[in-house]
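Hi support team,

I'm opening this ticket because the web form for multi-chain structure prediction keeps timing out on my end. I have pasted the exact lines I submitted so you can reproduce it. The total is 967 residues across three entries, so I didn't expect it to be a heavy job. Is there a limit I'm missing, or should I split the entries? Thanks in advance, R.K.
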Amino acid sequence: MASIKLAHITKNFGSVTAIKDINLDVVDGDFLVLLGPSGCGKSTLLRMLAGLETISDGAIYLGDRRIDGLPPSERDMAFVFQSYALYPHKSVGENIGFPLLMRYFRWWFHIPILGSIAKRRVERSPEVAQSVTRTAKILGLTEMLNRLPRTLSGGQRQRVALGRAMVRQPEVFLMDEPLSNLDAKLRTTMRAEISKLHRNLKGTFVYVTHDQVEAMTMGTKIALLRDGQLQQFGTPREIYEDPANTYVAGFIGVPAMNLIRSRYSDDGFRIGPAAISLPERLMAAARKANGPTLLGVRPNALRIGRSDVPDTLQGTVVLVEQVGAESNVSVELAADAMSVEQDQSSNTIIITTPGYSELEPGTLISVSMDLEQAVLFSEKTGERIRD
Amino acid sequence: MTSMSWRHGMHISAVLALLGVAAFPIYWMLVTSLTSSAETFADVPRLVPDLSQLPIYNAVFSTTQIGVWLVNSAIVAAGTTVLSIALAILPAYALSRLQFRGKGLLGLCLFASQMLPEVMLVVPLYAIFVTLGLLDTLLGLILVNSAFTVPVVIWILKGAIDSVPVELEEAARVDGCSRIEILLLIVAPLIAPTIAAASVIAFFHGWNEYVFALTFVSSEGLRTASVGLAGFVGELITPIETVMAVGIIYTLPAITFYLVAQRYVVAGMTSGAIKG
Amino acid sequence: MAQQLLERNARTGGRWTPYFFIAPAVVYMFLFQGYPLLQEFTLSFTETSLLSPNQSRFVGFGNYLQLLSTGDFRRTLMITALYTLASVVFSIGLGLATALLLNQQMRGRGIARALVTIPWAAPPVAVALVFSWMYNAQYGIFGHALRYLGFERLGSENWLDSPSLALTAVLLTTVWQIFPFSSVVFLAALQGVSPELREAAIIDKADRLNAYKAVVWPTIRPTVMLIALFTTIWSLRRFDLIWVLTQGGPVGATNTLVTELYRQGFVYRELGSAAAVGMVGIGISFIVTFAYFKVMQRAERARE
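Hello R.K., no limit was hit. The queue was backed up. Here is the completed structure from your submission:
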């Protein structure tokens, strides 16, 4: 069973705490994505799983077995490195077969002539040779088995690295930003291939990335980290639709969720002077908050509309970005309304409208909101307020 | 005891043994220089210096010509340094940045010059020295020594110039700098640490050089320290502690100088060697 | 006029600029290395005495033939080969071991790296001097140490005076002096070993030796080869250390090509045969270098 359990994992580098009390439960067959900006500790966490980094506190379980004291070679985990880490002087076939060779390696293989005979026997044994051929076939590398890594393209190298991981048939695959060195188009292809691999191999994958698209498309679970702390752990859908705090809300989604400064008091829910009627679910949450709040609305839940419709906000267009299929319109709200994007205060919100927008900067418009999917946060803590 | 700490202990002792081997001969030179004649020839050797013998370091300056030798060596070394750098910087830049016919040949000749033994050139150089009136002068030594250091210095400087971003120079060219101005105003300051390293290497060469100093200089007053020191070999009059004291006085400046500049020397040297 | 031309060229980056840049050094190098080398080359086909260098007689390949016909010269070649090979193998081996040792994490590593390079910084003449004192039969520290360890016979003779031990003694001194150079360069090369590759080997269950063979050696191999070439060439021309230690003696036991060259020229005063010895030495250097690049090229091609 390749379920993974991280219990109270902490990592200190000197006096700096890189990872703070992280708990995660990964079910067998999950594709867990560790997501976060650079320096959030996601790679450190992955390396601790692999055993390349020690843990300062806590425990790691693989199935029922506690593994945090074991050396990397005894954890039955394969690791795909960001730079692929292919052995430069070994051919593609030798690279893929290396983990198997090491599995059958005995100390006396180091004896010069005897050792090379023994090594060759291992390499040609049906188990090893067939695994290598099979792996190469799955990855479309059959034609390249005798080539050296440096003669391959980035995508092919990436596949060799995957092959070296697959050939061991490990219980767990660990991948550290494996697509970050590829160009955009290839990245999309490899994304699909890795997803396919996951479905076919049925192993447990742990995948580190800073790219939310990779996380959303590939992961069955996402753990979003920031400054070594777990912000939210859930399915991609939960993370997108049900963010736990303003950080998660701002990190996931392009353009980011708008956070509009708002307030609940005895005379109802207001954004600036405008009274807004909320769906019952949100109203209950707002009542509970009873004070300053942030209303989280995705850009595609906003409409540019006429001002005579109720629940509208007034603003001025400041920038129109044409993406092609849609347009992102930045609107500066009237001075008394404010939005909070990430940690920076500004009164600009972004609206995504389908098609090519003809709006000119400087135009006065009103904005109507579809609040069915909206969420509410406490302005003070940034935490989600639920009803 | 775990295998981990056992391995660590092995590692530490191996490093210590290595350092002992590396430092011992120099240490032994120091110990011998600070051992009285009586103890030097005792049945059991003295393993630590006798500090009461320290005045010998004062005495050798009057009992031997070491003062004069050191000055001569310093002049030769300094001259070699300045001349080598001055001659090397332009070709280093050309080899790194400019395209021209014969570039490969020039590189090959520089490499080939590493094969020439000094001794072999002594005779023809002697004739040239007679013609140019350089015989028995320190200037002559500076000129021949530089011929052997220039290729090395060119190679080291070329390695450093290679790593200066071309964009910087292009920016300067857009701003109206000539090649010479670029070299002197933009490139030279950026590779200053490497120039320092190359200087140290050239200085050492001049300081250590023996063959030319032996054959081209005959006046007592122009003798360099390497020749002076070698003169003690096989000679039985000068007490061994005096010889070793002179050796230390000649060696320590080199080692000290090297240790101070070590970081740059290593960086300069290896940049050329690793890139090949 | 010339000044103007130079300036215009430098400013416009004309096609003569590179030549202006290299001209001073080229002229200089030709005067002090190229021209003397040509002179030596001509000299090697003549019979010329040091006492009257202007009266030389053309003898064709006479000097070369004479050299190759004498057993002494063949012995010199053997000793040169032995000296060079041993210097290279031991200094590279010790240098590599040192580099690997000092590449590991430990306290005081910076100091250790600096101290280990001391031998390289010491002047060869001073090194020769202290080693010949250490080799002294009666009072040298080697003798004391060997006798203390129970090697009575080995410890009671001056290695430099013994035809069977002198070459070993010279080699010990040489290796001591030159191994820091290779270790310093190898240390720098080791910094180029990718940490990810090292970790990949660990994940793949490679033991230390396998990880070294799969990761470290391929990375530093080109550097090791290059330093081997340099050490070879430098060993073929090393003079001061050997000369001050033994002058090529006793009875020619440490007589390499370069000391033989000096002997021919300044002891026997035969400039012609001295030049021929020198040309043989340079020829060997060229062959070694040529072979080196051929082998490297083939290895390179085999990898494609």
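A quick check on our side: The radius of gyration of chain A is 26 Å. Let us know if the file doesn't open in your viewer.
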